[in-house]
Structure formats: C-alpha cells, structure tokens
Amino acid sequence: MKSQAEIRLLIVDDHFFVRMGLAESLNDEPDLRVVAEAGTNAECMTAFAQHHPDVVLLDLNLPDGNGIDTLIAIRRSDPNARFIMLSVDEGEDDIHRAVEAGARAYLPKSIEREDLLEAVRAVAAGETYFPARIAGRLRDRRQRPDLTGREMQVLSLIVQGCSNKEAAANLGVTEPTIKQHVGNILRKLEVLDRTQAVTAAIQRGLVRLG
Q1: Local confidence band at 4 (pLDDT 50, 70, 90 cut-offs)
Q2: Domain tally for the chain?
Q3: What pLDDT is recorded for position 209?
Q4: Is the pLDDT of residue 24 over 70?
C-alpha cells in the first residue's frame, strides 16, 4: 500500500544496467519507489499513462528519438508532470531546450548518489534542481541571443565544411546573404571566425556530428 510520503518514479533509459542500477539505488530509500521502467520514448509514453508517476527520470537520447520531444508530449496532456533529464551530454543548447520544455532538473549521468536523491525529492516537492556546472551553462546560454532557423541551417553547413558558395547553392540564396548570416552567427556565438563557430556549436550542443 502506498504511504503518504512515498514518491513514485518512472526510469527511462535504453541501457538495462543503467536502469537496474538506478532502480536498486532509489528503491533502497524508504520514501522512493520505482513503479515502472522504459527503454524508449514510446515505452515511456505507455508507462506514464499507466502509472502516472510523481517524477520521471528521462534519458535525453533514446533509440527512437530525443527525450525532450516525449517530455513535451506528456506535459501537453499533463502539465503537472515532473521530469528530471539525465544525460551524458552537457551542451548549453540541450540544457536550455530541456528546461524550456519543462524539465525541473538536468543531471549528468556521472552525478553522485546523494545529489541524485536530493534532486528527486526536490522535483517531487515542486522545486527545481540544477548542479552548479549545469546552472552556469544554462545561465550562459540564456544570455546569448537565439539563432534563427536559417542561421541554424547555415551553421550546420559550416560544421559540415561547406564554403559560403556551397552553402548558398545548398539553400538557394546568394553568397552575400550567406555572408550576412555567417556574420550574425559569429556575433551571436561570440566567436571570431568559422573555426571557432564550429567548435562552439559542437561544444554547446547546437549541432551534432554523424
């Protein structure tokens, strides 16, 4: 029988041993209980609808897509759903998108157990939890202006090694237009050249290779 203080959890991660380790660690606590596990976004949707957990621990990257899309979908039908995003990635853009979508915590998978427990209890109580490093990156990201959709397209082509001429041909615009976009990208990313823009884009999670 569920006690009044019990926090019911759903763990979503595509690695069985990660789920097992998290479940064993969390279930050791008298006020926490893992009620379901899932390995994909689709399984997460089903498990949430069936169990209505108090907190969902959700992996950012799953075999069938980005966890943020599932977070958005569930919160659209249940605005009170509480999520903790777990990830090996700490890119500024990933953190920003997760928080904007409604995640109440963003934790690296290397987090210490006591910090994880603190985060779970904080989120269950309606609070937020961001380790200092994550909070700093979120703050840095929010201080920078967003790239437009077209600028993101141009940045992606720059990362792929395209010249201005090649980018213009790819997008069906003129080279001066691409040059203007590149200038805006450098200014918004606070870098000096295309090479620094590529490095910043990858480090901040704006684009991914492969």
Answers
A1: low
A2: 2
A3: 65
A4: yes
pTM over 0.85: no
Residue 210 domain flag: no
Q: Are residues 131 and 169 in the same domain?
A: no
2, part of any domain: no
Structural domain range at position 46:
7-142
Q: Say whether both 137 and 157 belong to one domain.
A: no
* CATH number, residue 83: 3.40.50.2300
Is 76 in the same domain as 177? no
Asked if 197 contacts 158 with a C-beta cutoff of 8 angstroms, the reply is yes
